[in-house]
Every structure is written in structure tokens, then in C-alpha cells.
């Protein structure tokens, strides 16, 4: 399962909020909610997050195998 825990850490370090993602960068409220719930998002969204945060994919998401 893909988890977005690294995203929240990266955002906190850069002082970026979900408000910033939605209103400054045009990310939809539904997409932010999907990220918060560890639900699937598109690679376009992951690319956009990496661009906004100027980071690598591993700073946004991590794969944790299902047991």
C-alpha cells in the first residue's frame, strides 16, 4: 500500500499547508482529502507535489507491503 506520511513531514519542514496546496497551487479539495486518507492518486498529482515541494518521490510517498 502506498502511504503519504513522508508528504506531511516534507510539507511541515517547508511550512506548506493543505490550504497552500489548494489555493496557491490549484490542487482540488478532493485530491487533498485522498492524500490525507492514503487513497490512490494519479502520477500527475505525485509529479505536481514533487514540483511544488521541489523534492523527490520518496519525500512524498512510501510503499509498505500488505501483510
Number of individual domains: 1
What's the CATH class label? Mainly Alpha
CATH architectural group: Orthogonal Bundle
What is the approximate shape? globular
Quote the beta fraction: 5-15%
Q: How many helices?
A: 4
Major sheet strand order: 1-2
Question: What brief labels describe this structure?
Answer:
67 residues; mainly alpha; 434 Repressor (Amino-terminal Domain); two-stranded antiparallel sheet; globular
In short:
The chain is mainly α and 67 residues long.
Description of the structure:
- The chain has 67 residues and is mainly alpha-helical.
- The chain has one domain (2-63): 434 Repressor (Amino-terminal Domain), CATH 1.10.260.
- Helix content is 52%, strand content 6%.
- The chain contains 4 helices and 2 strands, in the order E-H-H-H-H-E.
- It has a two-stranded antiparallel sheet with strand order 1-2.
- The relative contact order is 0.26.
Write the layout of secondary structure elements.
Blueprint: E1 2-3, H1 5-13, H2 18-24, H3 29-36, H4 43-53, E2 62-63
Antiparallel strand pairs: 1-2
Amino acid at each position: 500500500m502506498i502511504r503519504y506520511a513522508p508528504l506531511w513531514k516534507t510539507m511541515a519542514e517547508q511550512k506548506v499547508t493543505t490550504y497552500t496546496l489548494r489555493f496557491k497551487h490549484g490542487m482540488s479539495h478532493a485530491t487533498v482529502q485522498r492524500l490525507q486518507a492514503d487513497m490512490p492518486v494519479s502520477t500527475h498529482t505525485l509529479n505536481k507535489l514533487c514540483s511544488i515541494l521541489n523534492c523527490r518521490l520518496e519525500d512524498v510517498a512510501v510503499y509498505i507491503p500488505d501483510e
